[in-house]
Structures are given as structure tokens and as C-alpha cells.
């Protein structure tokens, strides 16, 4: 069994939440509510808020230095995403990871991102491909036991850049909503199932296909990359059984 994440009772002096940030949008656009939402979502994805355990609205508000209202609003959004469960008269609980939801999200993501990779290859130029190579090399420099947060941030940045290259920002926004459950598994899989070097090799193959302006190869590489989850998921569940629905 993998090591368990911290319970809420263990928060001091090591807070479970990161400082408020702007997330993926600019500081001028980022509302306080959005920043609170991003901070709590990140803590769930990174396992610092333990699946199946209660979460205190008041405690999270205290850690973030905000009123309880934005935390309450964040809980509603996170409930819609399947990350928390709000139980009337009982409180809010971190949802365990649903294998079915992970597999459904992966299926949809493969369909969307396969098409995005195909379009990216159709419009690729040496100038637009350069940022992709830079991101892959940054990931490679993380090594086989990387800081998961940084490694996965670079992973997301690469996929986002491919969507931007394909002029499909809306597609990426759809993916961001879909992949919350997948992200929880991705975070666990680096330490227990999928070596970082495997992901880097898959990313290199994907970017090479885009650089070669080969739509068929780019789509196939993206689909192959996203199917890695099918291999890693049973291993992740075996090592982190308490984090998943029975």
C-alpha cells in the first residue's frame, strides 16, 4: 500500500493548501473565488486532501486567509467535477477516485486530443514546434524521480501548447474540465506505475510526428500516449486502494 496523504488534523505547521495563485489565467482576470478554487483543487489532485475524509470549510478559509464564502463556492464547483461530496447536515468530504470516471474521461480525452494532434501536424512550422521541444526537454531534465507538481505542470503545458498550435483553445478548456479525475491518477502513477522517462519518450514521439507534419502519426502518437492510463491504472489502484471507490 502506498503512503497515505496527510489528514486535515495534521495540517499544522505544514498547510495542506498552497498559497493563492492565478491558475491558468492572468492576474487581472483571476477572481478571489477562482484562486480559492484552484488552490483546493490542486490539494485534492496532489492527494494532500485525503480521499474519503471530511474537509473543513472553516479550516481551509483560515489557511487561505479568506472568508468562508469563496470556499463554499469552490466546494460547489468541485462537487460538480466529482472531487468533493457535499452531504447535508454532515459536511463536505473528499470524493474517492472513481475508476469508471477516470476511464470515461480518458476515452473522451483521447478522442478530442487525437483530433487536436492531427490538426497541429497539419499546420506545424519549425517556429511553432520549437516551444513543444523546449517543454519536452524541460520534462526530461526532471529525471525519473521528479517533483510531481512540476513534471505534471510541464505535461499540461505541452498538451495546452499543442491545442493552442491547432487553434483549439476551447478544446483545451473542455479537456481541463474532463481530466480532474485523471490528474489524480497521473499524480499517483509517477511514483508507482509509470516512470517519468516513459512519458518523456511518448512526448518526444508525439512532437516528432507533429514536426514531421504527419497527421496520421501525430494522432496515433497522442492516442498511444493517452492509453498509457489503461496500463497504469490497475497498478495505481493496487498501490493506493484506499484512494479509490470499492
UniProtKB/TrEMBL annotation:
Family annotation (SMART domains): FCD (SM00895), HTH_GNTR (SM00345)
| CDD domains in the cross-refs | WHTH_GntR (cd07377)
* Sequence ranges assigned to domain HTH gntR-type in this UniProt record: 30-97
Nucleotide-binding as a keyword?
A: no
The protein's UniProt keywords, in alphabetical order, are:
DNA-binding, Transcription, Transcription regulation
Q: Name one GO molecular function term.
A: DNA-binding transcription factor activity
Question: What is the designated name of this protein?
Answer: DNA-binding transcriptional regulator, GntR family
